[in-house]
């Protein structure tokens, strides 16, 4: 196929150069966006008088024919094609002839083209990712509302800390995903700006109106600086960051699922359809979805760091290094589009052993803070209350008792202010109900946050 450049070169490119330079094996996914850009560009050319009305319609017809050939699989990249832009232009020339086909490139460069197409691709996939995020958030919220009073041990440092509601814990994994949705929405505003019309770097000289292209492509305003428009990839990196953050947020939940489904925890069971077996150990049921989600978070972070590293030392304006923006971010998209549906299915079908969770909730003296809080409500300074509760824990630990089990006399011996009415707060439900501050684990507060979460969730 005819190259986009070559006149000033004596021979063709060395095969090693061609092999290194070629990007069609990954940028072919941009082919339909490239055609949409060409339709829009043809309109701008016609509006500026560079194409007659007849030429314009022949151009659109030729581009439609290319779309048909792409869809049918007739049009594929050949080894001679450097990138998707060159391949499609060569194909256009073969459909509409060199006279008309040769006119489309006027006033545009692959530099402003590619900067636009990657935005279009990411905007579309941000929609897909956001729908999958909503499904996952709904799955978590569904489990939370199905278990309004299930209690469990809340942990810090992975040690028993204070009893909490399972719903509260689950929703703590949903809120970061809601913020990821907000991040995508906010990113979208920046991603919608249009680089088309910036040319190679210095802007257009043919009187084309970039607003026509932007409007046709459903983008926002043309970018105000042609150098920035063709050379910056912060919008791509920002998408890669949000993708990495989603990966990390899902991975944190994955780690809980992996722990909860161990024999030692025994808090949750995976549905057969969402767990895997072992090739040698017949009894095994493994949390592979959670593990792959956790593993792929590393890959998403790697895509972000790789891309940022590519960008960090680049001089203005376009440099070929920028071709390296695509594979990592395409991989991030593909990874999320695989992980999120599987993870949502796993969460939707998870079952909980709520009796076991409740039984373990008060273990490890997790009600000790309730003793201290009770004393504070009686007017004891917290530092002293902490000491008294600590002495009670020690007393109980030495004798193998729970906090409510010492006699009234034992309480009094530990401290006269430790009166028997303390036992009223030494229940899991009492402890949970008492944490009724904003955002707390009391059932009324958890119901409130579930309603707030549901109201906050909407796709882009
Ligand atoms: N394939 C390139 C990219 O992905 C776009 C082409 C720009 N090439 C050039 N020689 N100016 O960034």
Question: What distinguishing features does this structure have?
Answer:
460 residues, mainly alpha, Fumarase C, Chain B, domain 1, Fumarase C, Chain A, domain 2, Ribonucleotide Reductase Protein R1, domain 1, 3 domains, two-stranded antiparallel ribbon, 19 helices, 4 strands, elongated, binds arginine, Fumarate_lyase_CS, amino-acid biosynthesis, Arg_succ_lyase_C, Argininosuccinate lyase
Structure description:
The protein is mainly alpha-helical. The chain has 3 domains: about 15-105, Fumarase C, Chain B, domain 1; about 110-145 and about 165-205 and about 220-360, Fumarase C, Chain A, domain 2 (Up-down Bundle), CATH 1.20.200.10; about 360-455, Ribonucleotide Reductase Protein R1, domain 1 (Orthogonal Bundle). The chain contains 19 helices and 4 strands. It has helices spanning about 15-20, 25, 30-45, 55-70, 85-95, 100, 110-145, 165-190, 210-215, 225-230, 235-260, 290-310, 325-350, 355-360, 370-375, 380-400, 410-415, 430-435, 445-455; strands at about 150-155, 160-165, 270, 350. The protein has a two-stranded antiparallel ribbon with strand order 1-2. It has a two-stranded antiparallel ribbon with strand order 3-4. A hairpin with a 2-residue loop joins strand 1 (about 150-155) and strand 2 (about 160-165). Helix 8 runs parallel beside helix 19. The radius of gyration is 31 Å and the shape is elongated. About 40% of the residues are buried. The mean pLDDT is about 95.
């Amino acid at each position: 196929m005819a190259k986009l450049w070559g006149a000033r070169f004596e021979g063709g490119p060395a095969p090693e150069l061609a092999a290194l330079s070629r990007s069609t094996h990954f940028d072919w996914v941009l082919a339909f966006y490239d055609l949409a850009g060409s339709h829009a560009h043809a309109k701008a050319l016609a509006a500026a008088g560079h194409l007659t009305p007849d030429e314009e319609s022949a151009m659109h017809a030729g581009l439609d024919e290319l779309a048909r050939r792409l869809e049918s699989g007739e049009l594929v990249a050949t080894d001679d094609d450097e990138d998707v832009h060159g391949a499609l232009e060569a194909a256009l020339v073969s459909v509409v002839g060199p006279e008309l086909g040769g006119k489309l490139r006027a006033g545009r460069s692959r530099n402003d083209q590619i900067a636009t197409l990657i935005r279009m691709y990411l905007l579309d996939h941000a929609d897909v990712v956001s729908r999958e995020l909503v499904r996952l958030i709904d799955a978590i919220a569904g489990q939370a509302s199905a278990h309004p009073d299930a209690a469990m041990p809340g942990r810090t440092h992975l040690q028993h800390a204070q009893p909490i509601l399972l719903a509260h814990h689950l929703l703590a994994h949903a809120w970061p995903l809601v913020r990821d949705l907000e991040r995508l929405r906010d990113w979208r505003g920046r991603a919608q700006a249009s680089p088309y019309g910036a040319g190679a770097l210095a802007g257009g000289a043919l009187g084309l109106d970039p607003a026509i292209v932007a409007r046709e492509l459903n983008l926002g305003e043309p970018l105000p600086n042609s150098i920035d428009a063709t050379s910056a990839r912060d919008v791509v990196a920002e998408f890669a960051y949000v993708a990495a953050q989603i990966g990390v947020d899902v991975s944190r939940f994955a780690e809980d699922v992996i722990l909860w489904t161990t024999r030692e925890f025994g808090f949750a069971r995976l549905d057969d359809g969402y767990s895997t077996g072992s090739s040698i150990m017949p009894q095994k049921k493994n949390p592979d979805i959670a593990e792959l989600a956790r593993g792929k978070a590393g890959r998403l972070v790697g895509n972000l760091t790789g891309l940022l590293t590519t960008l960090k030392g680049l001089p203005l304006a376009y440099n070929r290094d920028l071709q390296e923006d695509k594979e990592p971010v395409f991989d991030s998209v593909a990874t999320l589009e695989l992980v999120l549906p599987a993870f949502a299915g796993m969460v939707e079908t998870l079952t909980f052993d709520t009796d076991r969770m409740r039984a373990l909730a008060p273990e490890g003296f997790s009600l000790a803070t309730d003793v201290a809080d009770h004393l504070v409500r009686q007017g004891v300074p917290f530092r002293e209350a902490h000491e008294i509760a600590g002495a009670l824990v020690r007393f109980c630990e030495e004798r193998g008792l729970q906090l409510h089990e010492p006699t009234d006399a034992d309480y009094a011996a530990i401290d006269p202010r430790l009166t028997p009415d303390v036992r009223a707060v030494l229940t899991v439900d009492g402890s949970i109900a008492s944490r009724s501050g904003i955002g707390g684990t009391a059932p009324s507060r958890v119901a409130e946050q579930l309603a707030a979460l549901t109201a906050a969730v909407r796709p882009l």
